[in-house]
Amino acid sequence: MAVITMACPKGGAGKTTLAMVLAGELVQAGRTVTVIDGDPNTPFKNWKTIRGCHRRMKIRSEITEDTIIDEIEAGKEESDLVVVDLEGSAGLMVTYAITRSDLVLVPIQGSVLDRDQGIRAVRLIRRNEKALERTIPFTIVGTRTNTAVQGRTQKHTFQEMVDAGLDFLGSQLIEREAYRAIFSFGGTLHDLRPEQVGGLANAKENAAALTFDVLQRLPKKRKAARKSVSAKLKPVAKGRAA
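User: That's the sequence. What structure does it adopt?
Assistant: Structure tokens below.
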């Protein structure tokens, strides 16, 4: 089964939110998902205590560098897809997760600091490629972006990554109140109600489009893991907002 890992040495880059959005969309599309809660702050474990967990989602927490490989392998046995959320570092746990990944997502916000830390993550991926003598697919994902007004710094930062020849995901994780509300109310994006948070329809549209684009980045050998989910997400993705 496919393993999708969030990796960026910078804390607050959007790894956990990105992992949550992806996991929520995948179970909504009918797939089983195991989330590896590799952040020492155990955000998924804390989230689960609010209202439980979707029946198609499993959470594996209290992860260490000694156990992460076994946890990922166990996740592959029990679910269609494994989503790995990691701490903001470039330590051994991150390295081990990258070596087991079919796709690595490198979330960055529109700042020079995020750009530099994103490049650190790319270098780590490429060092692992050399060690393993195989390609590890990865893509940069813009997070907490604004659809109405994109600042010059953000535009310049993202364009620099593209100019450097790095793959940059077409969809971005747009700044939405609904994404923060997930961690307040529990459940997934699809469990929230309009009276709890505004802009819910736009958030769902963004989440579906982003997940669709992520699945297209999975290597061909993981075609089965992405095909049925993509089919369900595609109609929403086509209608996404700019």
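Residues 209 and 237 are 4 Å apart (CA to CA).
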